[in-house]
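Subject: for your reference before the review

Hello V.,

The reviewers asked for a structural picture of the protein, and I figured it would be easier to keep everything in one thread rather than splitting it across files. Below is the amino acid sequence we used in the manuscript, unchanged from the supplementary table.
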Amino acid sequence: MERQIGIYKKSDGKADLVFRTTHPPDYLLSIDPEDPEFEDEEDTLASMGLPLRPIENHTIRLNNFAHSGLREFKAVHVSPCGRIWVAICEESFVYIVTGGLEGTNFPLELTEIYLGEEELYYLAFDGYHVAVAGDRGIYTLSLGRLHEPTDDLHLIHESIQKGSLRLFRPQKDVDMQQTTCLQITDDSVWHVAAVETGNLTGLTRIDYGKRLGSDQEETGHLSV
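And here is what came back from the structure prediction:
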């Protein structure tokens, strides 16, 4: 069964835009699973930045998802301006969608990012920062900023191609499958999940700092 997201007009109930998992992406990007940042070292809390690389659409779909039409959306978030959508599927795909609405001059554009995770659990998006919780840890990605309603939405997709993901690993006893909260505030990303041993909750705070790329992490446990 095909999965889709639709925006409908409140006045007449007609669809403004329908986005389906089978919509071919304008840009399909992936991180390199052979990147040394993926090595599970005890002292590795954060990657320096995982570059996104173009990959062939059919390669990922044929090798990993023979039944890609059955993929379900795990979560969908919309930017405060209503012009950018971010969605995740359980099976490791992140979508950034812009344009395509009736009455606008911007065509539908879709960037699809393949993370190579067994499962994605949570999504947070504030219109600029994207955070995704998966088995390996917490991924963050920053998009280009829109300053005016007339700004070209294509700039968002260009910023993704030029950008890089950062991967943050909470303390080892934090169970990512038990993520209960992923929240973006003005200067931080907050992650809450159960701890594998003991009656505790793991709290991870990723501080964006004053400049992009100056991220610092704080981890701890809260008793419940």
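For the response letter, the relevant points are probably these. Helices lie at 57-64, 154-162. The chain is about 10% helix and 45% strand.

Happy to draft the paragraph if you're swamped.

O.
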